[in-house]
Backbone:
């Protein structure tokens, strides 16, 4: 389980780097196609990452009898991340820069709350 947690932590760092690239591209109003390339990669990786957490980490927390309301809230943030990703996908498809900026801000805000909470309040429960 420690190896899986380490992998997930590294992915959190990678996701942060990818969101920085998207943010810079949006600020520079780079072509939608270039933003889309980074976004598609981020979206696929985030979805896979969340599926691993939901199939491995959260069930293990539950097996250990440590599943609390707070852990449930953190798990539910995956829905917020998924919604923001979908909003970004639709904005990119429609080539709507304002909608893209708004959806990106939404995704960024959720990730900034979610990753530290997950790392300190969930991963720590299964790392030992």
Residues:
């Amino acid at each position: 389980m420690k190896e899986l947690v380490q992998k997930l932590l590294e992915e959190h760092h990678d996701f942060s780097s990818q969101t920085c690239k998207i943010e810079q591209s949006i600020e520079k109003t780079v072509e939608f196609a270039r933003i889309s390339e980074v976004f598609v990669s981020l979206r696929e990786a985030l979805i896979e990452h969340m599926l691993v957490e939901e199939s491995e980490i959260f069930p293990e927390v539950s097996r250990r009898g440590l599943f609390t309301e707070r852990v449930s809230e953190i798990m539910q943030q995956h829905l917020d991340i998924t919604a923001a990703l979908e909003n970004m996908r639709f904005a990119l498809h429609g080539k709507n820069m304002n909608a893209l900026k708004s959806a990106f801000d939404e995704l960024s805000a959720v990730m900034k709350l979610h990753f530290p909470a997950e790392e300190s309040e969930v991963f720590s429960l299964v790392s030992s």
User: Anything to note?
Assistant: Residues 65 and 96 are 46 Å apart (CA to CA).
